[in-house]
Write a structure and sequence with these properties.
Helix content is 9%, strand content 65%. The chain is mainly beta. It is flat and about 40 Å long.
Length: 139
C-alpha cells in the first residue's frame, strides 16, 4: 500500500496481493488516523461479503471467487478499544455486468484499488451493543 497526503485528505493505492481491510487498518496505524470516511474503486478477487440479518443478529456471509470490479467502495475508519476498526461496503460487478453488494469482510487486490480517505478532527469510537450484537459508533 502506498499513500500520499493532499491537504486535509489522503489518496491510497492498495497494491497487488494486499487485502483491502488489512491495508486500511495498516494505514490507520501508520498515520494515527482513527476516524475517517473513505471511498474508492478498483478490482478485487476472492472476496467475502456479508448481509446483516437484524432479526437473527448475525451476518450471512458469501464468498466470491475470481475477479470483480468495485463499482463502489465506501466506509469509515473508527476505533474499537485500541485497534482501528474498518467498516466497508462494496458494490461489485462480474464479467457479465451483474451487480452484487454488501459488507466487505475481505478482498485481495489482483491489480489495484484506489481509495480517498477524509480524516475527521475528532475520534470515532465503537462499543459492543448487546441488543444488536454489533460494534456501533459511540455518538
Amino acid at each position: 500500500m502506498k499513500y500520499k497526503k493532499f491537504g486535509s485528505y489522503f489518496v491510497l493505492r492498495i497494491e497487488k496481493g494486499e487485502d483491502v481491510i488489512e491495508a486500511l487498518k495498516q494505514f490507520a496505524c501508520e498515520t494515527k488516523i482513527f476516524s475517517a470516511f473513505f471511498f474508492g474503486l478498483g478490482v478485487g478477487q476472492d472476496l467475502e461479503l456479508g448481509y446483516f440479518d437484524a432479526v437473527k443478529e448475525n451476518y450471512h456471509r458469501k464468498k466470491f471467487s475470481g475477479e470483480y470490479e468495485f463499482t463502489s467502495l465506501s466506509g469509515n475508519i473508527s476505533r474499537f478499544t485500541d485497534e482501528p476498526a474498518v467498516h466497508c461496503h462494496v458494490t461489485i460487478t462480474d464479467q457479465n455486468f451483474q451487480a452484487c453488494g454488501g459488507h466487505l469482510f475481505r478482498a485481495t487486490i489482483p491489480a489495484t484499488c484506489e481509495i480517498v480517505v477524509f480524516p475527521f478532527n475528532e475520534p470515532l469510537m465503537r462499543f459492543e451493543d448487546e441488543p444488536t450484537g454489533l460494534r456501533l459508533l459511540d455518538i
